[in-house]
Amino acid sequence: MIILVEPDGVADAERHLRGLGLWTRRFASGASVALSVSSSSTAVPLSAIRAVRGVVAVLEADSPHPLLDAMPRVVRVGAVLVGGDQPVVCAGPCSVESEGQIDRLAGAVAAHGGHILRGGVWKPRTSPHGFQGVGAEGLAWLVAAARRHGLAVMTEVVSERDVDRVAAVVDAIQVGARSMHSQALLRAVGAANKPVVLKRAFSASLEEWLLAGEALLMAGAAGVIFCERGVRGPDGGARNVLDVGAIAVLRHAWGLPVLVDPSHAAGRKDIVIPLARAGLAAGAVGVVIEVHDRPAEALSDAPQAVDPALLAGLVR
Amino acid sequence: MIILVEPDGVADAERHLRGLGLWTRRFASGASVALSVSSSSTAVPLSAIRAVRGVVAVLEADSPHPLLDAMPRVVRVGAVLVGGDQPVVCAGPCSVESEGQIDRLAGAVAAHGGHILRGGVWKPRTSPHGFQGVGAEGLAWLVAAARRHGLAVMTEVVSERDVDRVAAVVDAIQVGARSMHSQALLRAVGAANKPVVLKRAFSASLEEWLLAGEALLMAGAAGVIFCERGVRGPDGGARNVLDVGAIAVLRHAWGLPVLVDPSHAAGRKDIVIPLARAGLAAGAVGVVIEVHDRPAEALSDAPQAVDPALLAGLVR
Amino acid sequence: MIILVEPDGVADAERHLRGLGLWTRRFASGASVALSVSSSSTAVPLSAIRAVRGVVAVLEADSPHPLLDAMPRVVRVGAVLVGGDQPVVCAGPCSVESEGQIDRLAGAVAAHGGHILRGGVWKPRTSPHGFQGVGAEGLAWLVAAARRHGLAVMTEVVSERDVDRVAAVVDAIQVGARSMHSQALLRAVGAANKPVVLKRAFSASLEEWLLAGEALLMAGAAGVIFCERGVRGPDGGARNVLDVGAIAVLRHAWGLPVLVDPSHAAGRKDIVIPLARAGLAAGAVGVVIEVHDRPAEALSDAPQAVDPALLAGLVR
Amino acid sequence: MIILVEPDGVADAERHLRGLGLWTRRFASGASVALSVSSSSTAVPLSAIRAVRGVVAVLEADSPHPLLDAMPRVVRVGAVLVGGDQPVVCAGPCSVESEGQIDRLAGAVAAHGGHILRGGVWKPRTSPHGFQGVGAEGLAWLVAAARRHGLAVMTEVVSERDVDRVAAVVDAIQVGARSMHSQALLRAVGAANKPVVLKRAFSASLEEWLLAGEALLMAGAAGVIFCERGVRGPDGGARNVLDVGAIAVLRHAWGLPVLVDPSHAAGRKDIVIPLARAGLAAGAVGVVIEVHDRPAEALSDAPQAVDPALLAGLVR
Asked: Smallest Cβ distance to C27: which of B59, B203, B232?
């Protein structure tokens, strides 16, 4: 935002604008004075800015994400409302490992109050030599387990080629942190016309994240649910830095549905629940948590998997 | 931590260790096999690690902060216990601006349930041409206001030369983010034998932060209270990225007293309270918040100052 | 790396190992002493480490990228040797805009000593509403222009669906920073059996970057050429922080072919040439530079495009 | 910078401004249109901007560092001109360890073409339990060694209390990365009226760094020489990320004297010389390098110390 102000009384105008919550910087040439407003300022109604004495005009940029601005703030995933009155619990194993494992865990998630079952079928690992997921077979196990236990279901798609078969059976498609910047995948996923859970890339800015959501909507997505899973920053003892500020801004300034994934932020099971609570306190409309009942048998991410019983106390 | 394991059954041992919450990496030479454990692993009792089949020995590093390890986990600031059963509210203006201002705000802080008054007297600003604080005169105003309203009091010291006069009148000394790396100041502040509130530097690692605490104790500090105020990371819409993971690790893995400063993390008043709640949910033992009742008159940080009345609902 | 040492004389062994260039950290349990070695230590021959008095055994991890380790260090792109005795100049416009534009620029690149023509046909932009490239039609223009002026040619692929038609006509395929983490695209591109220029993702670690190269080779790539284009860090006046250290490590410690892209690192034309020189001085085997002769007509990235004539003085 | 433009032909004006090298963003309200210009744009003469058709006015901010803007671009350190025609070599051990060691190394530095001797007397280490330097005694050894071998001399001050005795004997005072944000130390060092070598803090922005220079000048410093030593970013195999872009901007856009410290950026001796060359290629007016002839005896930073003989080939 740029605010044009009268040359007399600029200092007064600036003080009032800062009092409202805006960080301003002054630019001038002769009698022309303009204030730029930092994008990390408080969200303030335009009318309050215009009402400040000395303000001549408030210039705004066209929104770079008009579709997102117009998107309904509650997104339906199967029978579950994300962004509504009730916080949502989405849980499941990092990887679907076997028909028995996912059925057992789906039962536990349902028993402890969960709403959506998650589980990875194709795993985008850092190493190509690591476990890459059980593949398409696991998709059927996952969906069957969810249906049996009355849960909605979502899974991540990592290849454009898998979008259709996933979209045909799940309630929401997940786009992972490694794929958020992949325009081709966003386009393919969006075209499936399903709700999408969009994780934030490792060091994406808020604007890049919002624009990835816009790309999904432009391609046809039925709705976008953001999911914060930690960003890269200085080593604070956890795997990543959970950006609760981004959660708060998405929710309180933009009104958008945003989930917190404490598992990937923590990377260690002893702080997963505190981080889940922190995300909810910041404004998240739900959690996405990795659970496992037999972590010593897990094929991926065992150190951050928590017992499904811990879901129980999480939301009220 | 390094774990020596028997060459037979390494994979089994690794699976069990990961199930416990440890991220391991395998190193070998002939029949010698060792696993290094990432420092961002779950805190697991040594006995549980030793009990894993195949583990031969668990090698540990000497703690780099033995004094901190031995420090009592509750630190008294005046009559206030930080790290005890009750969350602590520390609040006040960014800058002490006048005798009237600080008295008025101290009254408001006390009225809304606050315990400790804060206010800057010497302001370490990014620009040397900006407002640098009212100086020593403000110290007397600040202390008098706190005493009049029954609050404990703390303020930041930025110069070695000011330590003694501050230590003589306050209940705790604050070391700011810009000074955390300054060994000379840490030594001078520690020597004053007072409790110290130690903010985390802009991009300090957890270990650097802990070691700054160790330096304070080594110099004589009566106790160290950590204060997370946000680190640098990708732009998420707030001024800094509040590292709730570091709060959770300090509290849940180390048992240390840690406060959350949502004001400098947010930089915008519309998300200060959500971030305060997030910090408490992650494990913070209290909050440090900038408040102002007439933000349009504030001499610094107006865009992030919240109304003192918002303190009321914050801690139960 | 983990070094087992005799309990007597540990301090001496550590001093000698540090003198060789290793950052060590000591772990012990009873008479067992091990030193972990930081991965950002000097590359030192194993024999020199074993020769240090007190060293009992040097334990190493299996390489996570055996294919990369075995890859020839010179990669042929058309008739051009990348990683050989001559630095390579790869240049062209950010976007292919028209048949005339790319032909004109190919001529300029050839005239000023360039070896490889580059140009974007599908543009992965941050905003879905921005210019997305001219598409497949531009691919033919690009290749024709390169052939006419005796240049090798490469372009970026952003969708799995485009790999085959691109692989059929170019000398090398580029994987962009936004796609480096996309396993599905890496697999598809690798399967085309062409040389690949692999850009580093915005905040990828060296290990993640190497593993993306490994994934390409595992899928069948004819060779991998790394390309550093700047990472995210504190604002230093340029668009990104050009990591010349990573270039130096890739070249001097690993012997791998690595190019420098100063255009995306700079984001501003006044420092593109100094950054190109810095990359070459650090060890880059060539440059990838965006050029344009009519920047006011460029459809993307005009502020960082330099005049093709500046290529002339760049490599000797 | 904010550019007011005529509402007709905004798109044309924007294209031309981007062609000049500016990243613009458009803001409008009714017939008022303004373009904000990103601070990481090309440095373009004001006259060229004003000459673009459609530009109505170019609004600028007052410089936040007027003293720095007016500072002479060549700073004299003893008999050495920093920022003049000849690149400057400043070298010495991390720590002054003994009278013999520093004399021997000063001789080697002089013999291999060095101009300024450096060496730490008080060492600001991360751990308070580590070696803290030999203290004031070492200052005399350092200065005597420099004088004996015809070198200028500088050392770091970490405490306000040491400024005067250091200023009395050295040719330049160094402010370290850990102290750059310390206003009190900047004020004390500046008041000594000596040239100052100002290292960049671990994650300081360019503006914060420039403002620290301004604070030094405001307090009385005879001149400020910037020194880039690497910032925090993703792990690229070196200790820190050497920001050659910041060097290029300081030199080519601001004309300021800036040195490169490849030792702390690298943290490993095998890439110190390539990074030194990269810094010089980017525009650095000299290097600051840690050398040691007996690294196995060094009391600090041995893994990054290079042989003094390597200085010889460095500058021409």
From this structure: B59
